[in-house]
Amino acid sequence: MAQVKVGIIMGSQSDWPTMRDAANILEELGVAYETRIVSAHRTPDRLWEYGRDAVGRGLQVIIAGAGGAAHLPGMMASKTRVPVIGVPVQTKALAGVDSLYSIVQMPRGYPVATMAIGGAANAGLMAAGILALQDSDLAKRLDAWRTALSASIPQEPRDE
Tens digits of per-residue pLDDT, 6-55? Predict the structure, then answer.
């Protein structure tokens, strides 16, 4: 089994339908990942442990999805030097804008690469791109994925 290099974490079970898109992209590209529910507010000890142990366990990228107050990505960035990609999860109250602002407004020293609201697929692609810098086989798979995406776009509109 391949070494897990990407951690996909989320604040609650309700975030999984969004975060599954990151997992699907990583599976398609053959990137080993793990998934965990790590709430910044309800399971802070789990958050500290995950961040503290990330480097030693071989994680190279963490994708963190959160809605509402959305502290998970930023708090994870404060606990590890592993790059963190934040995914704002759409909320009912403010349609995810609250989550986006919480994630994108990080103080100097604790950066989080922030995707669009619900942008877990792009988070998976960003994680793969980071890993591809040192993995030529993955780089080829990512290039092929992008080529296939471009080829799937018709030149002219058609009736459906």
Answer: 999 999 999 999 999 999 999 999 999 999 999 999 999 999 999 999 99
Retrieve residue 120's tokens: 């877990």
The pTM is what? 0.96
SS3 for the chain is CCCCCEEEEECCHHHHHHHHHHHHHHHHCCCCEEEEECCCCCCHHHHHHHHHHCCCCCCCEEEEEECCCCCHHHHHHHHCCCCEEEEECCCCCCCCHHHHHHHHCCCCCCCCEECCCCCHHHHHHHHHHHHHCCCHHHHHHHHHHHHHHHHCCCCCCCCC
Query: CA triplet 22, 154, 30: central angle to 5 degrees?
Result: 25
**Sign of torsion over alpha carbons 7, 8, 9, 12:** negative
Strand 113-114 to strand 61-66: parallel, antiparallel, or no bridges (unpaired)? unpaired
Hey, what are 78's tokens? 């404060």
**What pLDDT digit, counting tens, does each position of 110-126 carry?**
999 999 999 999 999 99
Written as six digits, the tokens of 1 are 């089994």
Strands 33-37 and 61-66 turn out to be: unpaired
